[in-house]
Amino acid sequence: MSAHPTPHDRILADRARFVSGGVATPRLVVHHAEGARVTDIDGRTYLDFAGGIGCQNTGHRFAPVVEAVKAQADAYLHQCFMVGVYEPYVEVCRRLAALSPCHGDEQKSILVNSGAEANENAVKIARAATGRPAVVVFDNAFHGRTLLTMTMTAKVKPYRAGFGPFAPEVYRAPAPYPYRGVTSDDAIAGLKRLFKTEVDPATVACVVLEPVQGEGGFMEMPPDYPARLLEVCREHGILYVDDEVQTGVGRTGRMWAIEHYDGVEPDLLVSGKSIGGGLPLAAVTGPAELMDAVGPGGLGGTFGGNPLSCAAAVAVLDAVAEPSFLAEAEALGARMRARLEALAARRPEIGDVRGLGPMLAMELVERSPDRAKAIVDAAFDRGLLLLACGIDGNVIRLLAPLTITDEELDAGLRIVEEAVDATG
Ligand code: PLP
Predict the structure, then answer these.
(1) One domain for residues 92 and 236
(2) CA of 153 to the centre of ligand 1 (A)
(3) What is the share, in percent, of the chain residues with pLDDT greater than 70?
(4) Number of domains comprising the chain
């Protein structure tokens, strides 16, 4: 560092000194953010196709969210829902009930702080409701970083290595991944095999599946797979938990990605990330007979569903539930896909363009993270925040805010194209 470090260098040096190295460090040091743009501490503005990892479907500082949070801050900040009931919590649950893709007339929810915590609670509810211990998860899954959810997650480095022993009674089945040769037939056959070789299906409480696997590489489930999985679940009395932490709240152009799959009504829905409009909130939603299977006090937590997050979530859910919002998100996805497919057509190193609606990614043919990392870096240098993902780290994912303007989208996609060309 020079004798006169920039604010950026000074904060990163302090970060290295005072913050655990266990948290990955990006190059960006944020000063402020608005809509689809983030400005760093040195005054440089970036287009944001990362959204704090999929948490800004409605964009940074979405005006109805900021307004609702300010009004809530003037009333009270924290109560703990187990000490004092407050309306914003109930209102989020009312909206989730109306929007739930799960079967059953009477839907209920519990609110928590993070996607991992929500998945933990979904498993607790499934176990309590079925009286069974086992959980089936899938290849390429990401469900969180707590002991149970890290066990459910399918990537050794950096998520599992060195952190064992893992939680018991978690079994893994193949997931469809057509680009790499795993079909729905293979995945169903693998699940049935698992039931012969590893775990008695009569002891399985639930399966947990992301309709588009997020961290694992944006693999959307093939059109037939969720219905076939549900059929196997119904045959064995297993609950279907739909992890929509990354795919939900409009990300795929529908409120929930599972709505792309006709007739698939899961048992429990797990939501998070964008639901809080930038504040920490996650939820488990499902029919009353499941959600009430746990006795009073069995679920909850000090901060779960805190009033600020709930006020924000009411504003987010009201905005995203508007048919025009979702229609625009679908249209955005179509524009993005056309551009990515055109790019892939002239760059042979891009093997697959995939995803649902505006939740899109490109997988590089080579199964190594180097090129994807170079593309992310080249985009950053040109003023665009991008993220890689995938078990091999070779997938570039686009999580543009759904409120992005046409000009911003165009400028961001142009940078993606330039970054791919510049690193080829
Ligand atoms: N489930 C999915 C599908 C996710 O993408 C994530 C986070 O990326 C999680 C769960 C964990 O959420 P959190 O980081 O809020 O604990």
Answers:
(1) yes
(2) 10
(3) 99
(4) 2
